Amino acid sequence: MGTPTYAYVEKRLRRQCERLRTLTHDLPARLLYAVKANPNPAVLRVMRSEGLGLDVVSPGERVLAERLGFAPEQVLFSANNLTDAEMRAAQESGVLLNIGERSRLEAFGQAFPGARVCLRLNPKVEAGHHEHVVTADARSKFGIPAEEIASARAVAEAHDLRVVGLHQHIGSGIRDVAPFEQAVRVLLNAAEAFPGLEFVNVGGGIGIPYRPDQEPLEADRFQRAVGAPLRHFLEAHPSGGLSFWFEPGRFLVAEAGVLLVRVNTLKRASGRVFAGTDSGMGHLMRPAVYGAYHGVYNLSNPEGPLKPYDVVGNVCEGGDVFARQRPVQQIREGDLLAVLDAGAYGMAMASTYNLRPLPAEVMIRPDGRLDLARRRRPPEELIDALLEAEETAATRSPTAPASPAAY
Ligand SMILES: Cc1ncc(COP(=O)(O)O)c(C=O)c1O
Asked: Which CATH number applies to 79-248?
């Protein structure tokens, strides 16, 4: 297999789906997968075969879900500053919109009076592995602040909108149950004011242990902190039909993926050994963007003695580092390294910075078979795309300016 390549392990994806079912087994739960974590179609097909629906956050993700055969009822569209045209296309496709701004709700109500809608609440609980992934503190752009929920309800009523769902998503990479517990309390409190609710959506955000000294979120504690209040709410509102939705991304896919890179250069300098690879921060941005930790494993020398390395990439940036002073089994030039726990927000956030083509993606099937999940594109495709506009202009008559629509 060539490198760099993202490899996903189907068995592990299914194991995480099973864990999620266990976490929520004593609730009337509906499980969605947050596509943003990893939109590879092979991953989405596994999720569908596990009975999961999808949380999508953009027109692109919505259309991908549709093209893969997810029914509109299986998809929740958590909108975020959509244009009128994007909102209309989503509504007409039949998916349920989850709206987190009063002005968008107003526009939606005017365009689709009487429609079903979900409201995204900001419960003002700060949580997440890094400040960039906190989505529910007072500075967050997401959701209708809890104290404004009555006025949002008034907007909905003015347009006969049926608020069938109440949603929150407080942040990502959360391994402590306390923020979930706090936010669920706010969410359920707000739910009291919406008698027509069909579901309450607790969002995603469950973290995973990236570092060897980190523990996963404890299932028992999660069930007590989150499951119990949801069950109590159900008992207090026995009208029936209410379900609880969960929409994790990272929890389902992070540990199922590795980024495979090859070491091409070993360099000793300033008392360090740099292991230079054929990938970099463009392919896995999490270390550069969040200071995130990813384990590194030498597949070519698994029994080798542990030695400290700076495992770095081929991008022209000082921050192009997978791991600093990390003990890895002794590395030789030519060795194949696995950057671990890279299945979530890895390829999904990858870029072609420095004009480096994106990695390929493969799915490892339970019987050991490898299926190509996205082909590696030749660098020429990048260059062609860059030169396309100029080359098109060169073939246009000099007196005919490009139409503004071309921009
Ligand atoms: C609305 C929404 N739902 C779910 C998720 C998934 O989050 P995570 O991958 O942390 O579970 C996100 C990610 O930010 C999100 O924005």
From this structure: 3.20.20.10
